[in-house]
Write a structure and sequence with these properties.
The complex is a heterodimer of chains A (354) and B (346). Chain A is α/β, with parallel strands linked by helices and 354 residues long. Chain A has helices spanning 50-57, 92-98, 110-113, 120-131, 137-150, 167-178, 197-214, 225-231, 249-254, 259-265, 306-310, and strands at 6-17, 24-35, 39-43, 65-78, 81-86, 103-106, 185-189, 217-222, 234-239, 242-248, 316-318, 323-325. Chain A has eleven helices and twelve strands. Chain B is an alpha/beta fold and 346 residues long. Chain B has an eight-stranded mixed β-sheet, with helices on both faces. The chains are: A alpha/beta (354), B alpha/beta (346).
């Protein structure tokens, strides 16, 4: 992995809501990298910091959200070569230039993201005109139609208002707009959560084709781990603002190492096999205002040890460096017996769940 | 109240319909048209069993539940409770409400945010005739039944102090406080955090088994229906298109829509999912009420499907489907040539 294929580099990123004593730490010490053309899935429950993370990275956070530390470097591709761009140090004007043309974002609610008083065509026109003021109206219209074609929508949709489109069509419009300026990185925050499964399936398979055609890198946020296993190259699981596990998608699915990942997978009933009672994760998601000491997951963790209650686990590398896990169970110095459910080899047989 | 035995039919809907009037093309001056939100749906809930009703948004599953709770008046059809037919022209009686309870999707919207949990639990008890003296003890008991222990810790809190999962348990507890025989749960877990969903599902299953409750579990999540249900019903555009006992609907779907639904669910065990041939949702509203509702999207649709409503066909004794593909030659022949000749009004 040479650094030249790296498109995004995030180091020790922190985001808080509010200042001083009242501040709530929403993202804590997150570091990760993304390679060109790769798909990174971010999974976690509401409140795990997954949306805050990407809003922070793209400097879209609204007050009282504050970035309190870290480095975010984006590698920009332009006709005259590549250069590194510091997202956090850049001026607002520079950020504006980078947004949409290099990084674009698709939000969860397309209905809220589109202006209800404007026809779809007008939204496209604005994006294209801002980027290239010299273009003619006819050119922009042609490009808009081409973009709608990418997401399999008829050109006549340009004449429609957002409320005239179905949820799936609106989300397709958002995806087409995100791709308008051919960015290297697209971020999607729960783009299919509000849609029914059939539409979700169509959009996900379109995304697959689009990525193959256009080669952009993708950060895909969702709480649905099984969807990520299909779509992503790597999956990052977040809990209480921290990364608790990161691994190649199939490895993570076949052999989760963190008890939270295991619990999350045990929360989705399977579509095949014998029916059996599943337990999910006991307890309730943590309150960020009042996080437990030590590992934030320990009150809900069936394998918690004394050490977990007092010491915060760091991300450690496993499986020849392919995987990162923040759990004391896997630390050699804890000399704990790793539970059977978390011990399987990712390349062995299917793991059995307890 | 009658004694409940597992397997007895508790609540039955027979050819229940609800039509709404909507404006057609042309806005305010446009012609009115009928939208058949639920069209001749028949289902039966049995004591001690969970009936899962699966369908996408707009399939009519919530309207069906509201009709069964008698919040929405049916346009036509019949509701039977423990075998007795209900006079749908009359107002709902209190005794009906205490037998049939509805749990809604959004737990935060279902309880009064400025009242304590105690109020939410005790009010239905008082309304349904519990003595004032017994109410406090009964409220404790009700919370314990949904594993919110110790109850004192919850009763004096406000809804915003509780998590979604806890609030949904309180909603279920509130429904159960009047000791109903039938619980209608409309998407009870879709707004909850993924890690607490199973807890609520397991709770529903437990209540069903221990109290011989008849539960209607409405969902768009097929996997959860497979997990909990004794019988599963699939709805499309207001009609029941397929029903079967246990997991048959999901394991061996017969209707093309059910097949599409099942193959659309992300399934890491089967990553080589075949590209489903049914097409996008955009045409789904333009079906012909005389034909099969699904025919505009169906890859197997024939002329017959566009013009004639498919019959209910028994695949076996525990599995039936509303589709021409499964129909016998006899059923096909029964459709006269003249009615086939009418062209589909797109």
């Amino acid at each position: 992995m040479s650094s030249s294929t790296r498109i995004l580099d995030v180091k020790n990123f922190y985001v808080a809501y509010g200042y001083g004593e009242d501040a709530v730490q929403a993202v804590t010490d997150v570091s990760f990298t993304l390679e060109k053309g790769h798909v990174l899935g971010v999974a976690g429950e509401s409140g795990s910091g997954k949306s805050t993370l990407v809003y922070g990275l793209t400097r879209l956070l609204r007050a009282p959200g504050v970035i309190t530390g870290g480095d975010v470097t984006l590698r920009l591709q332009s006709p005259d070569g590549e250069r590194d761009f510091d997202m956090l140090a850049a001026s607002d004007a520079d950020i504006r230039a980078v947004r949409w043309s290099h990084v674009s974002i698709v939000m969860q609610s397309a209905l809220n993201a589109l202006n209800p008083m404007r026809k779809i065509g007008k939204e496209f026109d604005e994006v294209l005109r801002t980027h290239d003021p010299k273009s003619t109206k006819a050119q922009r219209r042609e490009r808009s139609e081409e973009l709608l074609g990418l997401v399999k929508l008829a050109p006549d949709r340009l004449q429609r208002f957002p409320h005239e489109l179905s949820g799936g069509q609106r989300q397709r419009v958002m995806i087409a707009m995100a791709l308008a300026l051919q960015p290297e990185l697209v971020i999607m925050d729960e783009p299919t959560t509000a849609l029914d499964v059939v539409t979700q399936r169509e959009i996900v398979s379109e995304l697959h084709d689009l990525r193959e055609k256009l080669g952009f890198a993708l950060i895909f946020i969702t709480h649905d781990l099984s969807l990520l296993v299909e779509l992503a190259d790597d999956i990052m699981v977040m809990y209480a603002g921290r990364i608790v596990e990161r691994a190649p998608a199939l490895d993570l699915y076949r052999a989760p190492r963190h008890p939270y990942t295991l619990g999350l997978m045990d929360s989705f009933p399977p579509l095949q096999g014998e029916r059996q009672v599943m337990t999910g994760i006991p307890g309730t998601p943590p309150n960020l205002k009042n996080l437990p000491t030590g590992c934030a997951f320990h009150p809900r963790c069936p394998y918690a040890m004394d050490r977990c209650r007092t010491e915060e686990p760091e991300l450690m590398s496993l499986d020849n460096g392919e995987r990162l896990v923040a759990c004391w169970l896997h630390d050699p110095s804890s000399s704990a017996a790793v539970p059977v459910a978390l011990r399987h080899s990712p390349h062995g047989d299917q793991q059995e769940q307890s | 109240m009658t004694e409940r035995h597992t397997g007895d039919v508790a609540l039955e809907a027979i050819d229940l319909s609800r039509h709404f009037t909507a404006r057609g093309e042309g806005g305010f001056f446009g012609a009115k048209k009928q939208v058949r939100a639920v069209d001749r749906a028949s289902i039966s809930l049995r004591s001690g069993e969970v009936l899962a009703v699966v369908g996408e948004s707009g399939s009519g599953k919530s309207v069906l539940a509201r009709m069964l709770a008698r919040i929405v008046t049916p346009t036509s059809g019949e509701i039977k409770i423990y075998g007795e037919s209900i006079d749908l022209t009359k107002r709902r009686e209190l005794s009906y409400a205490s037998e049939v309870q509805l749990v809604l999707q959004d737990p935060f919207a279902a309880v009064n945010p400025v009242r304590r949990v105690r109020y939410a639990i005790e009010r239905p008890l008082l309304l349904h005739g519990t003595n004032k003296a017994d109410v406090a003890a009964k409220a404790n008991e009700v919370l314990e039944s949904v594993s919110l222990t110790p109850p004192e810790q919850y009763l004096d809190r406000y809804p915003h102090e509780l998590s979604g999962g806890q609030l949904q348990r309180i909603n279920i507890a509130r429904g159960l406080s009047v000791n109903p025989g039938i619980l209608l749960a409309d998407e009870p877990i879709s707004m909850l955090d993924v890690s607490v969903r199973l807890g609520v599902l397991n709770l529903l299953r437990e209540l069903c088994d221990n109290r011989h409750l008849a539960i209607m579990y409405i969902t768009h999540d097929i996997a959860s229906a497979r997990y909990i249900a004794d019988e599963t019903v699939v709805m499309y555009a207001g009609q029941v298109v397929e029903r079967a006992r246990q997991t048959t609907v999901i394991d061996a779907p017969v209707h093309p829509y059910t097949q599409l639904l099942v193959s659309s669910v992300p399934n890491p065990e089967n990553l080589s999912h075949q590209n489903t041939s049914a097409t996008s949702t955009t045409v789904s509203i333009n079906f012909n009420y005389d034909g099969c509702r699904f025919s505009p999207r169906c890859p197997h649709a024939t002329d017959l499907c566009h013009t004639n409503e498919p019959p209910n066909v028994d695949v076996d004794e525990n599995h039936s489907v509303r589709c021409w593909l499964a129909a016998s030659d006899e059923q096909r022949r029964a459709v006269t040539i003249s009615s086939r000749a009418t062209s589909p009004a797109n």
